[in-house]
From TrEMBL, chains A, B:
CDD domains, sorted: GST_C_8, GST_N_GTT1_like
GST C-terminal domain: residues covered: 90-217
Record Gene3D superfamilies: 1.20.1050.10, Glutaredoxin (3.40.30.10)
Protein name, per record: Glutathione S-transferase family protein
């Protein structure tokens, strides 16, 4: 059975692959699972039909027969548990890879989202310029700790895993901030993720959606 | 083998059970697994020995033989996968319960943490009073959506699960904000979680640590 995911009909990132459907697309490409995509507009996302699947009115969702999931972390974990290729077989290594998924979403992403919120929603506020360096410094703390742990390894814990997939997509959200450039080993880590053929297929797929939407106007 | 977790030697919440070790203690109590606790000071948390287990210098951690984990979400999921009692057996229901764990940590908790950061670190900033209502409104959006989904059910998806455990501990962080009082069904949901004997045993255990530390001065 081919699962169906949802994605933005018009992604606000203008095809940069920073929306959270990218994580799910990448995971599906890594394990070689075909998928269908249902595009939803910002209006549709907040309506009852979509909220029946995603209570918080967001994308992505994942539907497969009777199963309906939301939250990119939960969806990627589900895919990784159903197919080989994204989690090690050894139980301890598997638990550690899942730990990195949670670390990406729960420890590294929140200050990055906070920066995005500041840039998007607080730019006209009187405190914007004064608060921005504080928000950026909070991200630097996490990036420094992550760079220390990564060291000169290719991936966070042995072979590439769903933990790396999640961390790379989280770090990619820093693209316009310049912060990643301050941590060359993390920039190289992200580039390694982006160089994977599965990433590229997923990226091209979401870019096609954006380009098609732009053509329609 | 009895696992060892870490917790604050002196919790900044003054025994209210809002630190993230509470999630792990509660999960261990729900499944009836005994555990040891190693207390760490704020200084120790940031040192190399602790960072070898937790790269971001936080609590809790979980050590069991050769396995060392961090991130409360990953630890609770590990416990729930090793023991019966926190996840349904049906594969689809299981995936949905795990989805609620991610929703708690990745969608509901970040704006709540943002409020905590504002209260703790930005109180002396010139923008504090002006920005606070915006931060609180962002939390209200999530609470409204969560209350709509919960409806008049006891738990988020069928029987109590690790998803509820995580969501209740996230919502408990709102205690001093007054925000939970605006959503009576969510306040009742949190109270249902707190009434569970396993919650109470976990709460008492962390309170004892705080009281002992206070006596030592």
């Amino acid at each position: 059975m081919i699962p169906t995911i949802t994605a933005f009909a018009q992604s606000p990132d203008r095809g940069k692959g920073q929306a959270r459907d990218m994580r799910v697309r990448w995971a599906l490409e890594e394990v070689g699972q075909a998928y269908d995509v249902r595009l939803v507009s910002f209006t549709e996302m907040k309506q009852a039909a979509h909220r029946a699947v995603h209570p918080f009115g967001q994308i992505p969702t994942y539907e497969e027969g009777d199963l309906a999931l939301f939250e990119s972390g939960a969806i990627v974990l589900h895919i990784a548990q159903q197919h080989a290729g994204l989690l090690p077989d050894d139980p301890n290594a598997r638990a550690r890879a899942i730990t990195w998924m949670f670390a990406a979403l729960s420890t590294v992403e929140p200050p990055i989202v906070d920066l995005g919120v500041a840039l998007l929603l607080e730019r006209d506020q009187p405190w914007y310029a004064q608060r921005l360096p504080i928000v950026r410094d909070r991200i630097r703390v996490r990036l420094g700790e992550l760079a220390t742990r990564l060291g000169d390894a290719d991936w966070l814990d042995g072979a590439f895993s769903a933990g790396d997939l999640m961390m790379v997509t989280v770090l990619r959200r820093l693209n316009i901030s310049g912060l990643l450039d301050e941590y060359p080993s993390l920039a190289a880590y992200v580039a390694r993720g982006e160089a994977r053929p599965a990433f590229q297929r997923a990226f091209d797929a979401q870019l096609t959606v954006f380009n098609d939407a732009s053509k329609r106007g």
